[in-house]
Design brief:
Belongs to the uracil-DNA glycosylase (UDG) superfamily. Type 4 (UDGa) family. There is one protein chain. The protein is an alpha/beta fold and about 220 residues long. It has one domain: Uracil-DNA glycosylase-like domain (Uracil-DNA Glycosylase, subunit E, 3-Layer(aba) Sandwich). The protein is about 40% helix and about 10% strand. It has nine helices and four strands, in the order αβααβαβαααβαα. The chain has a four-stranded parallel sheet with strand order 2-1-3-4. The radius of gyration is 17 Å and the shape is globular.
Length: about 220
Amino acid sequence: MTDTVPTAAPFVPATEDLDRLRAAAQGCRGCDLYKDASQTVFGEGPPDAEVVMVGEQPGDIEDRRGHPFVGPAGKLLDRAITDAGLDRSRTYVTNAVKHFKHKPAAPGKRRIHSSPDRIEIMACRPWLVAEFSLLHPRAVIALGAVAAKGLLGPSFRVTKQRGVPMPWPESAYRPEDFAGEAHDDAFVLATIHPSAVLRADDRDAAYRGLVDDLRVVTERLAAGR
């Protein structure tokens, strides 16, 4: 007997409404991560967002509040977006995995995240595909290794390929999965996750690197207008 491969696909409705998609995601049982999470944390932002940012997964605070990038890493990302000259109001933020995977913690202590594995990333991918099918961004920013590998394939290395605009990943996945009706000049760029800045020994240098990468997006968008 063959084991069933975990996937969120049966829970993803056929819809052109992001709000309906977000509501449906609350009932996702595509993999086992929902069992230890408080709720699904879906993407948020304007449906006509010029930029889409994809992180790894929600953190402890996001899991409790039900919104992406509202914890310390999210606040740092908001500052970096502004410092890089991007428009936060035209940015959609989401995660490759919609449930919080974490290690057990003592009562009252913040739960520490565990990186999702390949099976969990692929199980959640139908939600990311569904989001992109309704969004028409000019730029997609992968924040961290998990998001970058989810978008660009398992061989991608953020440490070696960050800050470089790339076309849609035709060799890794069908571009229509992510681009939808994206602009002809749509591109993807990978950088570090803002949580990596918070963990860095030299936070100032790490933050400058993040902002520099985001400025590449700002300049590319400006050149295409």
